[in-house]
């Protein structure tokens, strides 16, 4: 038990790491998650390229956002599982953020609080 | 008035419940919302099926995420309205989370704080 | 330095303002961001129209959501940069919300805390 605290772990990672992250989360005991297709950029300047003689700029890269709300499992375990599964060591591996959550409700049962996560 | 507090209510529900949720929110006095197409899984193990003799696994289900930031209307009223409108009683009905928000700005006017929500 | 605090600035703006917002954020020293295609409605009642003699209701408008997590740069600077770049003065310009973030991890390095943002 993590003292009734609820956290939302938000990770933005490479799309081809989604499968590994899902498996790592299930193994960490936190299988529930929500996935969104996003695009983004990090701290590197935009890359320029050439296509049929035209110069173009790639400044947003396809990523997936994974949101995983937990209460029984410590957020740190979820963060570690995601970071480990998503890492390649190359620029663009992504970021993980931990946000506080004040309440949760399971729609099917109407139950609320940490037990509802 | 809920004491100047701003909350973000984040709900992940069945796509075919979006219409009912929008109507319920308007009736609760909280019509403003942002909708994202997402996919996700809850606590049930993945389902396996057969297609043309091949086994496949359905592990992510299409859902919609609804974000509704409120200040005058209590977050609890918004949560109750969504939960009531989105419930079928079957597994997969979704979850609702309440997050703290520290500030809000209305872009058109530049106004900030709870009044800007 | 803003005292080790990490904030997530969430903005929902007109899609055709994304370019201006990206440039404004880069100029403000906060180039990193995540973009999601969303739809939504604000406080105005839905608009009705006519198409081939049929009445229809437009109640969700296409928007983009921009998430920008910062620690060194004050969240207020990011909010101001986005609001300034996204404003037209017409209804529908969007909203900006500031959420607290408790921790951040850079996946490539495993580094955590405000330095990892
Ligand atoms: N501060 C941030 N705010 C919001 N989204 C971010 C932030 N930093 C990174 N992201 C998201 O994560 C994705 C990957 O970022 P990336 O890994 O390139 O970060 P970085 O800081 O440049 O680190 P690296 O040097 O390892 O590339 C971005 O495309 C963006 O979607
Ligand atoms: N802890 C969570 N974190 C993030 N997203 C979640 C979480 N739990 C559920 N979701 C989202 O809500 C959707 C529906 O979840 P679901 O209703 O199946 O939850 P559940 O815990 O399995 O409850 P039930 O037993 O009623 O099915 C998931 O597909 C996912 O997108
Ligand atoms: N309270 C809110 N919660 C969640 N999303 C919101 C909220 N208010 C606005 N949005 C998002 O921002 C988009 C634009 O909103 P909009 O600018 O129309 O807000 P408004 O309050 O009606 O202000 P205005 O009078 O300037 O139009 C909406 O389509 C929705 O996606
Ligand atoms: Mg990078
Ligand atoms: Mg379920
Ligand atoms: Mg409006």
What does this structure look like?
Three copies of one chain form a homotrimer. The first copy, chain A, is of the alpha+beta class and 117 residues long. Chain A has one domain (6-116): Alpha-Beta Plaits. Chain A contains two helices and seven strands, in the order βαββββαββ. In chain A, the strands form two sheets. A four-stranded antiparallel β-sheet of chain A has the order 2-5-1-6, with helices on one face. Chain A has a two-stranded antiparallel ribbon with strand order 3-4. In chain A, a hairpin with a 2-residue loop joins strand 3 and strand 4 (54-58). In chain A, helix 1 runs antiparallel to helix 2. The model of chain A has no long low-confidence stretch (mean pLDDT 93). The interface between A and B is medium-sized, with 24 and 35 residues. Bound molecules: adenosine-5'-triphosphate (ATP) (3 copies) and magnesium ion (MG) (3 copies). One magnesium ion is lined by residues 42-44, 91-92 of chain A. Residues 42-44, 91-92 of chain C line the site of one magnesium ion. Chains A, B, C: Belongs to the P(II) protein family. Chains A, B, C: Keywords: Cytoplasm, Phosphoprotein. Chains A, B, C: InterPro entries: N-reg_PII (IPR002187), N-reg_PII-like_a/b (IPR011322), N-reg_PII/ATP_PRibTrfase_C (IPR015867), N-reg_PII_CS (IPR017918).
Quaternary state reads homotrimer
Small molecules in complex: adenosine-5'-triphosphate, magnesium ion
Residue-averaged pLDDT of chain A: 93
Reported for the largest beta sheet of chain A, the result is:
4 strands, antiparallel
Most extensive interface: A-B, 24 and 35 residues
Q: Looking at CATH, which topology of chain A would you report?
A: Alpha-Beta Plaits
Which residues of chain A sit in consecutive blocks of at least 5 with pLDDT less than 50? none
Query: Helices and strands of chain A, in N-to-C order?
Result: EHEEEEHEE
Q: What's the CATH first level of chain A?
A: Alpha Beta
* Major sheet: arrangement of strands of chain A: 2-5-1-6
Helix content of chain A: 10-25%
CATH architecture of chain A: 2-Layer Sandwich
Which structural class should the secondary elements of chain A be placed in?
Answer: alpha+beta
Number of helices of chain A: 2
Number of domains of chain A: 1
The value of Rg of chain A in angstroms is 17 Å
- Strand percentage of chain A lies at 35-45%
Q: Total number of β-strand segments of chain A? A: 7
Report how far apart the termini of chain A are.
13 Å
């Amino acid at each position: 038990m993590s003292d009734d605290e609820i956290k939302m772990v938000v990770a933005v990672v490479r799309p081809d790491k989604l499968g590994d992250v899902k498996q790592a989360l299930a193994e960490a005991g936190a299988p529930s998650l929500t996935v969104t297709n996003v695009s983004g950029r990090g701290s590197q300047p935009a890359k320029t390229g050439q296509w049929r003689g035209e110069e173009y700029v790639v400044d947003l890269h396809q990523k997936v956002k994974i949101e995983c709300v937990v209460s029984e499992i410590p957020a740190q375990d979820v963060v570690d599982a995601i970071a480990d599964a998503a890492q390649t060591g190359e620029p663009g591996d992504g970021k993980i953020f931990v946000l506080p959550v004040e309440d949760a409700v399971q729609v099917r049962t109407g139950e609320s609080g940490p037990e509802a996560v």
